[in-house]
Amino acid sequence: MSDHPLRQQLHNEIHARPFERVGAPAQVSHQVMLVSPAESQQAFAHLSELLGNLHLPPPSAGSMFHTEQIGPVQLRWERHGEFISYTFITHEQIGPQGPLFERCACDRISADWRARIPGQQLCANHVAVMPEGELECDAIPDFSAVLDIDALVGSDVADGNAQVFTDLRIAPDGFTRFIVLSKPMSARRRGRLVQRLLEIETYRLLSLLTLPLARELTPQLNVYEQDLVSIMDAIGSNGTTDDAEAQRDHKTLDRLTQLASTVEGVYAASHGRFTAANAYYDLVNRRVADLHERQIFGLQTIGQFLERRLAPAMQTCAWAARRQQALSERVSRCSNLLRTRVEVAMQQQNRSLLASMNRRQYLQLRLQQTVEGLSVAAITYYMASLVGQLFEAAEPWLHIRPKLAEGLSIPVIALLVWLALQRMHHRLERASENR
Questions:
Q1: By CB neighbour count within 10 A (0-12 exposed, 13-18 middle, 19+ buried), where does 431 fall?
Q2: What's the rounded Cα separation, in Å, for the pair 80 and 122?
Q3: By the 8 A CB rule, do 263 and 331 touch?
Q4: CA–CA dist 151, 148 (Å, integer)
Q5: What gap in Å lies between CA 27 and CA 105, rounded to an integer?
């Protein structure tokens, strides 16, 4: 018995990105970088450079995940399809002894190294995890120093074992801030909670990458639809003559082919982004459901806020994708209709051409029969003349007048020549049928 060559790899995939243990208090910084394939390789080398400078073991070649303790900071590095995430976790004291977000987890890592991280930053978050006992929790805590109270969003999460507060705004330092008040729970479960919050914000922004594209496509789709209506009007109109109609159909087909090429090019360029938006939005909804939120203090929950703000944007993207798909299908149907019309016109032309060829062949056949009749007469004349010459030379012995013999031979010669031509026609027909 032998194992499948991918068994070990597939089995380990479920454990590829374990949750980190997060205690209380703790500070977490999270950065997401959009990268190209080349920048993804550069990011791997960039991480190896940091670990090498600190005399730490480098990640294995081709690794998609790596975690390393760097002094007081736990560094978590993940490589995904189109982005790379960096998570920094530290358990240094925060709260009254140290103002929230004054010095965050990522500040413990070299600023020069972080400034040279390849790619474009799409998402950046700070999470402050605090024991619930440090703050009064029977009323909305005063986070006015670090959060926008007018945009405050909060809820009970993890079946009432924690509270989350955020304003989902970008602070002056370029990071979105989350505050987690945690009741006693396992560090692993607290790590899952923090990871879900970070993934919600990451996938939210990744799904919104499609919104500018959807807005950009809207006026283009309007133009394409108007062009299609114009082409349909041209297909529905009738030409004054067959030649004019055929020429118009060919011009219309050229226009439609150009439109189809343009629409399919736009569809091919944007379809992947729309598909990714749906996948990311589904992940956002799953992560929000995993929070098990309950409303507190009359605040909007994270799920309610996203339903109000994110769902319309995703509906806009879905509408643009459906409209683009419908336009592509309409262009295809119109193309088939016009192509059928052109083929019917060509069949009519071919039918007329075949009828003309049949008439010409009939005339040629009649002409050939006429020529054959003349040929029979000519051959008969010459052969009868030869017979006359023959009997004229043999008159002293045969005592038959040459003119009489020549005249009597004419019908015999004519019949023989005609029979010979008919036999030749029959042979040619049999040879043609055998082919």
A1: exposed
A2: 14
A3: yes
A4: 6
A5: 6
How far apart are alpha carbons 142 and 140 in whole angstroms?
Answer: 6
Triad 138, 142, 143: Cα angle to 5° = 125
Residue 98 pLDDT level (bands cut at 50, 70, 90): low
**Each residue of 327-366: pLDDT tens digit?**
988 888 887 877 777 777 677 777 878 887 878 877 776 6
| Prior bond of 118 cis (ω within 30°) | no
Give the single-character DSSP code of 180.
E
Q: Buried (b) or exposed (e) across 144-179, using 16+ Cβ within 10 A?
A: eebbeeeebbbbbbbeebbbbbbbbeeeeeebbbbb
Q: Residue 210 corresponds to which tokens in the numbers above? A: 């499609």
In angstroms, what CA-CA distances link 386 with 154, 181, 287, 392, 402? 126, 131, 113, 10, 10
Segment among 99-113, 144-158, 364-378 with least mean pLDDT: 364-378
| Number of neighbours of residue 55 by Cβ within 10 angstroms | 6
CA separation for the pair 157, 123 (Å, rounded): 23
Q: What is the pLDDT of residues 244-299, one digit of tens each?
A: 666 777 788 788 888 888 888 998 899 899 999 999 999 999 999 999 999 998 89
| Residue 355, token pair as written in the block | 């009828």
pLDDT of 201 reads 95
| Type of residue found at 349 | Q
Per-residue model confidence (pLDDT) at position 339: 74
On the 0-12 / 13-18 / 19+ scale of CB atoms within 10 A, 310 is buried
Q: What would the two tokens of residue 117 be?
A: 């991280």
Burial of 94 (0-12, 13-18, 19+ CB in 10 A): buried
Per-residue exposure over 262-290, b if at least 16 CB sit within 10 Å of its own CB, e if not: ebeebbeebeeebebbeebbebbbebbeb
Under the banding of pLDDT at 50, 70 and 90, the label for residue 219 is: very high
**pLDDT value at 233 more than 50:** yes
Helix (H) or strand (E) holding 329: helix 302-393
